[in-house]
Amino acid sequence: MSYDPIRSTVAGFMDWTEDKVRELATKFKNKDVAFIKDVEIINIAKEQRTKSEWLLFKQNIKDKELRIIFQMGMTLRRLDEQKMQLEIEDLKRKIIEKYDTKGLHMAQIVQNGVFNKYVGNILDKSPTPERLKHEIEDLFRNIETRNVFVRAGDNVDTRVREITTKVFASSPKTFIISSKGSANIECSKIISEVMKILTSYKIYVYSSEDDKIYFLNKKDDKI
Amino acid sequence: MTELISIKDMPRELKTFLLEELGYSSDGIFVLDKNQEKLLDRYTNTPIKIDNMIIFPGSTIILDNNPLSISSFLEEFGDVL
Q1: B48 contacts in A (CB within 8 Å)?
Q2: Exposed, middle or buried by CB within 10 Å (0-12, 13-18, 19+), for A146?
Q3: Nearest to B79 among A12, A36, A49 (CB)
Q4: Which of the residues B22, B25, B68 would you substitute to probe the A interface, choosing the one with the greatest number of A C-beta atoms within 10 Å?
Q5: Residue B78 or residue B33, greater confidence
Q6: Does the structure's ipTM exceed the value 0.90?
Q7: pLDDT for A42
Q8: Domain for residue A195, yes or no?
Q9: Domain range holding A51?
Q10: pTM to 2 decimals?
């Protein structure tokens, strides 16, 4: 088996005895060992901290809370890939308990890939490093007024009113609308109506087999 | 690099013994601190169950085994695991 510097290996014992535990406790006091339950969760946490999107984020964002939330978004995505539904629901609950629903919404734009596309959308405008940093932080701090996620069955008129109200209220440089799967139909209807009203915005679309991400960029934006 | 020891299959009475060796204890369900109060996870602020505890070195940090607490630990103390 080849050595993987990211993934930890773990030792376990079948024959636990008091002497063994005492010996390990001594090793622990010398900081040689840690006691864990499930190495997979630790490895998932460690793996996220080696990814390019994390390195870009931590280079730009120093806020400890935002950094944890970002890692939780990446972790949610990883758990989703592994179809660990119980762990996903448990983690979402913990995120809400600590960071409220706003924190969960921040994590979810990382989970569903919106953040990566958002950075691409900003980089297309050749921003200065300071401006890139500002735009990333602005998105996270104002997530509730910069982003909506359309769900299947959403009422088109209601969502159009919600989106246009948010845009008129804060006049963001970029507003994000995204959807997944069967909600893509409602989302395209919403976009069509929204763009009739928001004439000072132009639209950029990222589309994959299952996801749609629309960036509404202000026409007069000079980054 | 710190060696990771899985205590998943360690009998509960030996987990209690381990906690006592480190200056803590348990009521059989939760980890108790030196004042016999339920020990709270420093990141989620919730009581830590003995069957779901993880113990990281340094200043003996006992946490609940979940991604939020583990990532918060790595963020605070660096990639020590």
Answers
A1: none
A2: buried
A3: A49
A4: B68
A5: B33
A6: yes
A7: 92
A8: yes
A9: 18-111
A10: 0.89
